[in-house]
Amino acid sequence: MVDLPNCPKCNSEYTYDDGSLFVCPECSHEWSVELEVENSEGSKDITDANGNVLNDGDSVSVIKDLKVKGTSLVVKVGTKVKNIRLVDGDHDIDCKIDGFGAMKLKSEFVKKV
């Protein structure tokens, strides 16, 4: 019997292989075999809100109004951010936004341009 990985989303043990994808029947999450191999090697891919893999130097667009802590400023939807840098931590994108300066963003609030 083949030892299949647990679902990364809900940790279910009832995953199955569907060609080039692993599928979880409990939460309907699908992920690729290649992604599982890369993750088992220790590399962590950072993805945007749509699931696209982000890399250093990419350009992204903000998909939600984001309040800036400690100020009354708001980073508006559609703000484009160029030349991002990926870092470890909760806020996994380091960048400079025109009019705001250096910021840290969460990848779940951006999409790749």
UniProtKB/TrEMBL annotation:
Entry-linked PANTHER family: PROTEIN YJDM, PROTEIN YJDM-RELATED
Name under which the protein is recorded: Alkylphosphonate utilization protein
Family to which this protein belongs: Belongs to the YjdM family.
UniProt domain Protein YjdM N-terminal: residue ranges: 4-32
Source taxon at top rank: Bacteria
InterPro entries (UniProt xref): YjdM (IPR004624), YjdM_C (IPR013988), YjdM_N (IPR013987)
Source lineage: Bacteria, Bacillati, Bacillota, Bacilli, Bacillales
Domain Protein YjdM C-terminal: 47-113
Species for this entry: Metabacillus elymi
Pfam families documented for this protein: YjdM, Zn_Ribbon_YjdM
